[in-house]
Amino acid sequence: MNNSQPAAEAARLIWPITQQGKMIAQQFASRHEHPATAERVRQNTLAVWVVYEFLDTLGIAADLSTSDSWNPAIQLTEDVADLVISGMGRLECRPVSVTTEPCPMPLEVLTERIGYVAVALDETAGEASLLGFTAALPSAQLILEQLQPMDDFPTHLWQMQHAVEREMPLTRLSQWLGGQFESGWQTVDDLLAQHFLTPAFRQGRMSAAPVPIKRAKQLDLGLKLGTAQVALVLEVEPESEAVVTIGVRLYPLGGPVYLPEGLAIAILDESDTVCLTAQSRHADNYLQLYFRGHAGEPFTTQVTLETARIMEHFVI
Amino acid sequence: MRTVLRRSNPGLAMNNSPDELRRLAGEACRHCFDSPERQQYLTQLIRLVKPRLWYDSSPFYQDALQQTWIYLCQNLCDGKTARPYDPDVASVATWLNAYLKFRLLDFEQAAKVARARYVSTYSDDGRTTSVVETLPAKPEIPPILERVQEWLEQNASKFRQIYIANHPEINCYEMIFRRLPPATSWQALEDEFGVSYKTLESFYRRQCKSRLREFGQAEGHLDF
Fold this sequence. Notes:
The complex is a heterodimer. Chain A has seven helices and 17 strands. Chain A is α+β, with helices and mostly antiparallel strands. In chain A, helix 2 packs antiparallel against helix 3 (35-58). The longest helix of chain A is centred in the first third of the chain and has 24 residues, at 35-58. The model of chain A is unreliable at 1-6 and 197-209 (pLDDT under 50). In chain B, 57% of the residues lie in helices and 5% in strands. Chain B is built from ten helices and four strands, in the order H-H-H-H-E-E-H-H-H-E-E-H-H-H. Chain B has helices at residues 18-29, 36-49, 61-75, 92-118, 131-134, 144-154, 156-160, 172-179, 186-193, 197-219; strands at residues 121-122, 128-129, 163-164, 167-171. At the A-B interface, helix 1, strand 1, helix 2, helix 3 and helix 4 of A face helix 2, helix 3, helix 6 and helix 10 of B.
């Protein structure tokens, strides 16, 4: 091999363009009458498909069905080549031409992106070069020599996912007892008012005082759980001065009456050990866990659906 | 605990000697399945071993290669679908080439079978007709623009109720309509409505695009 190749040249990862990718690209393109739009859609689809197969081969979960690039209505209105990385967000898999560098980016891909991969399609050879990736585009264009090599991409994704989880703020339940609530936590009625009424919510506790303090949070967001939206409801009731009873529930939000099958909730202690778990079956309309804790004790709720995971950190 | 990997990457140089590839394979297998470290070494291995793989101009070559990469990731260390790689028996390239050539043969065989079926039906007068010609035609999928326009008109009165505060003229119907080809540029919309791009874009993204997205998702099923 020639060792004097420039680093960027050597770092490119060549990936096959498979028949299935070509068929999907052709089929998407055929729904657009304008030739320029059809060609744009075809190329975007190929670029997304190549990155999808690369990630899939490595075992990194991505979801085509919720990606805008797989959505014919968005293909029509926007120049998008996004791929939803489960539990994280949209990765732009931008087809680029090495000859027209730097590659300007359409306005619509400057928002809602967790990163950008530059994909050079070589349809004659039947393969694509993944030239590298970047987490951000400060100048609204892709500059190829500023890209990081694809070798580093898995670690980058992993670090990003964990940074997101570490940055999650701590919710202090002792403040709740004093009537103060962190932003994002609403009364159950307020949260409901933003969505369709779900009958499951009506199964509240009917017991008399002391009324437990109850707050709800919409779990962020369509991206993480695909289309499924759920509400996390926390109920806090002081048992004595030092001990509180905590109820944690998950409800479906918006359209569906049932929770998605396989949705799981776990309570983790300080050392991330799972203490309690519950998982939804075929037609569950809510999940709940009750436990007691002492003032000052930290715990974490972990909601998972397939590979998506949302953590919320609390201290009693 | 996981260790944070070095940013600068000595593996980027194009050293793809059999020994180096064996070393990378060993490194990959020191980390557990699905870990970012294993994924990084696999990516590096794929990048470096590729120039050493068998190549031909078969129309199925890229598909066979894709299957080879899956085979590599599944079986290098754990042997999930076949016996794991044994560095004492073969180099990484030899191990992968054997698999790649078998996949190419499979594809060729399948194509032969398909060709045989294609010419094996005869019409009454003895002329050959293809099976494909005798299949009923697929129903034509309408152009997406037509479908979006229909949907937008059906929901027009509902979408006109969703607008930027004090600007009923900047509503969901209008904004989606303007995004359809031929689209009005954001700059032109800014000038026309006297509202900043930021406000327009944010309103469009939160209130309008989400609805368009939902409609498109239902429209987007593929045929296979």
